[in-house]
Please model this.
Amino acid sequence: MTTTVWIILAGAVATYLSRIGGHLVLSRFNRIHPRVEAALDAVPAAVLTTLVAPAAYTGGPAELAALAVAAIVGWRGGLMTMFLVGAAVLIAGRNLF
Amino acid sequence: MFLTEEFMRGMRRSTPVILSSAPFGVLFGALAVDNGMTVGEAVLMSATVFAGASQMVGLDLFGQHVAPWLIVLSIFAVNFRHVLYSAAVGRRVPHWSSPQRAFGFFFLVDPAYAEAEARGERGLAVNFPWFMGMVIPVYIMWVLEAYVGAAFGGLIPNTYALGLDFLLPIYFLGLVLSFRMRPMWWPIVATSAITSIIAYETIGSPWHVSVGAIAGMALAAFMPIRTKEGEGV
Model:
């Protein structure tokens, strides 16, 4: 096998360990401390935000407009509508400016 | 037996995930070949790693001929957030058997985690057939997209004009918004956003994800806790 294949397989093992690891560690405890519980309840907002914030921070006008319009639409409607409107604003913005 | 009602219900949740990640999956295949991978290697990477952002980072480093162990470490660093997903979602699946967990957690990508959390929050069981129904179509499409991108990537006219690189942040914003009814949502989002931007500027990518995430979680952990069942804290 080539080095590339080995790197891919090692990367796959590392990724799998990250996906099973948190659960394996946590499941060793019978009782979860309320503060740990609160931290885990914060995971969706805390982690997913970090995937958006730097992209917004480094984005130009088209990217910021897309995120802003998507946020407004998403606040009222569903995820799919929000995504399609956001994508439309992004593509329009990038092609017009 | 597998194609139960729950499986079908899960499948319906996979459509937005597929639509938003498809351009990214194809782009990965195209860039993989640009960076010197074969079509087979590109498909192998999507099939075994199954984590878009880390695959892109891996590619970038392949192109620069960085030491192999450093590439693997970088992939792990980008994927470290899954440790948090896995710990959080584990509480929702006490009824899964060990083999189901070992198999199911392989598919714990960002949107799969968000869907599972959202379902658990609505008081519905995150059962195994439902979870599989949601992730299997996403997985199959992801692998196919890598092949399409790798084999025909040269045909994509202008990925920038099509906005392919920025579709995922828009989608992730939608996922963040879908949790806005949770306690402390605003302070957590603000803390993680500011911290991740500062970390992005100082320490650099991909560490900003872990640093920003831990800041938001720490805020939630150290806030006064509303006691359950009169339990003292």
